[in-house]
Structure prediction request, 248 residues.
Amino acid sequence: MADGRLNASLDELIEAQGYGRAPRASGPSSQRVQPYGGGRSGGGRGLPRQGGVTRISETLDDTATPQNAIKVGGTQDAKDIAHRICESCRVGEPPALLTIGGQSINQAVKAIAIARADLSKEGLQLSFQPAFRHTDRTKPLIAFYVAKERSQRPHSTQGDDVTLTVASGSKIVPVAGAIAGKIRENLKISLMAIGVDAVTNAVLAVGNARLFLEQDNYDIRVEPEFEKVEKNGQLMTSMKLSLIAEAL
Prediction:
């Protein structure tokens, strides 16, 4: 495109460029927050089963989370959660946010975006990495590991900006393959999502893309922010997730 920016549906991109097959994922690296919150073996393995069915409450592994972790409910006020994030960042280390379900994930992302906007006025930059709390990487069970820093993080990728739209019906694993493919093409990527299901799919896709990129010695951090977009003639608030690729 003339302006170097691609605005496309991820599903269209996957179909056009063949990103449907996920790359092989190697074991989690010890150089950053691991894609599984509980460590190399992944959350939930070896836990007891009842009647041959593993209960969700028994498959969550949060052993790597800090003591100031916040459990986020789907009905909690994102501004209240953001306030707690800001207070933790001002006096010490950022908290991890523990989520179960799409509504919970959506509130967590909104809270981090609000806190990020507030703390940027104080010279702090916030980002997060999603880690799985369950061995099934399509389940909406995510730990958000928040990081802070004083200066703007330099982007490790160069080239055109690519803005990709994640929809409520987007398939998580192919979307993750598309993200990994674009990072391998040395492009800066942002995801746009409107609505709970779309935001959830975007977060789960980033978590899977982190695993796909391990063999390439890359990892991903996410910087969330609200952005106004026009859809069907109406101005709507979308969630923009800027993906920062970092060499391990």
